[in-house]
Amino acid sequence: MYCICCKKNNVIPQKHRLNPDLFKDTQSEEDLIWKKEKRKDGSLVNVNNEMIDNGIIHIIDAGYGSTHDGDQIILAICDDCIKENLEDGTLLYYGNYMYPNENFIVEDVEKSKQKYRRRNNLDNLV
C-alpha cells in the first residue's frame, strides 16, 4: 500500500512480502486490505490485525465534525515517515499497548507532548 507521506508503495502486509507465491491462490493484498470477517467470539478481523512490513496500515474512523462523518479510511504510513514525523511533532506518540507502564514509554510520551507544545507555540507566534 502507498505511504500517505512519501507516496511510495512500500507498506506491505507481511505474508505477501515474505512469500507472495505461497499466497497467490488465497487472499490477494487487496482482499487483505478490505477484509472484514468475524471470529467465533464475535471480534472483528481486518487489516488492523495483520502483520505489516515497513510501517502501519490502519483503518481510522472520522468522528463528528468532519465532513467525512462516519467514514472509515484505510491509511498506510511507512516506518521512515513515522520516524521523521515523530521527530518534528507532525505525528504524536501516544503509547505502547504491549508495554504501557514502562519508564521509556512514559518518557517518549512526555517528549512527544513537549514537541507538540513547542510546535504549537511556534505556530501561534507566527
Question: In words, what does this structure look like?
Answer:
- The protein has 126 residues and is α+β, with helices and mostly antiparallel strands.
- Helix content is 33%, strand content 17%.
- It has two domains: 1-88, no CATH class; 92-126.
- It has helices at 14-18, 29-33, 79-87, 103-125, and strands spanning 12-13, 37-38, 44-45, 52-53, 55-61, 72-78.
- The chain has a two-stranded antiparallel sheet with strand order 1-4. A two-stranded antiparallel sheet has the order 2-3.
- A hairpin with a 5-residue loop joins β2 (37-38) and β3 (44-45).
- The chain is globular and about 55 Å long.
- The termini are far apart.
What's the gist of this structure?
With 126 residues, this protein is of the alpha+beta class. The chain has 4 helices and 6 strands; from the N terminus they run βααβββββαα.
Short key terms for the protein model shown above:
two-stranded antiparallel ribbon, 4 helices, two-stranded antiparallel sheet, 126 residues, 2 domains, 6 strands, globular, alpha+beta
- Biggest sheet character: 2 strands, antiparallel
Categorize the overall geometry: globular
Return Rg in Å.
Answer: 18 Å
Label the structural class.
alpha+beta
The quaternary state of the protein chains shown equals: single chain
Number of extended strands: 6
Estimate percent helicity.
Answer: 25-40%
